[in-house]
Known about the structure:
By secondary structure, the protein is an alpha/beta fold. Helix content is 23%, strand content 27%. The chain is built from eight helices and 15 strands. It has a seven-stranded mixed beta sheet with strand order 5-2-1-6-7-8-9. Strands 10, 11, 12, 13, 14 and 15 form a six-stranded antiparallel beta sheet that branches. Strands 3-4 form a two-stranded antiparallel sheet.
Amino acid sequence: MKILFFGTSKFAIPSLRALAQSTHDILAVITQPDRRRGRGLQVTAPPVKDEAKKLGLKIEQLKDVSSSQSQDLLAKYDTDLFVVVSFGQILKEAVLKIPKIFSINLHASLLPKYRGAAPINWALVNGEAISGVTVMRMTEKLDAGDVIFSREEPITDDDDAGTLSVRLANIGAEVLVEAVSRIEKGEAVMKSQDRSKVTLAPSLKREDGLIDWTKVSKEIRNHIRGMMPWPGAFTYHKSKIFKLHKVEEVRIEPGDQSPGEIVGVSKEDGITVKTGERDMGIIIKELQMEGRRTMGTAEFLRGYTVVPGDRFGKTAKQMPSKGDR
Length: 325
């Protein structure tokens, strides 16, 4: 099977490797242009480009895959199948029709649940116990095509979006190779998606990371898991922003504390914060102050002071510490 592989992020690398090691022929790897990233704004290549170089594959970097120039370039390849994994651009109908057979996409959810750009994150935020991957035939409507193959994967209590993404990328690579083989043999069975079960997973914005302390402890913990590693779940203490990386749910003595209020500080146990439940909170085990590296609470408390009665909140002005009120 002659393939054009479309991918950009790290999630696509296991799939690219698996197809390169299979009997199928990758004619070229289509990825996005190098971009300036990070604080130094250094020009950085997409992860898939670096991997394609290692594999000795031809690389095409397209700023707009649906432009007339890009369509002309893609049409020059004698391609059976377009394979798309975490590419980051929408392929218009004219592009999807270029290959002889059709175009397929590996999506990191069990479709029709979590259509969209951030399925792993929102599955964790919503407290799902099961995730998975789906290979579908692509249509111009995002993530709406017929399902060719899917596989479930349990979400563990220790998972965050980073760890689950790595696991689904590897599982997805296996599923993708199997799906391509079934297509080649004419054995692919396609099933339309149940539109009544569609849920959405929109792109994340930085502000999605803001912690709402009025929610229950489990919801806050799931939110923190789902926002890792980006944009990161964050809160404010006085004038500073803090990202919370690891927390645990904990039962606390009921009192007159309000959500976001610090009710306990211990180098051994962590920082305990009241949530939206009467007798529950969370213990912060690992956090990151703006401009600093991630650290455990014991190390953090050696250089920064928080005391019971202080508060975390949505903004410094809205949530002052007790001593400032």
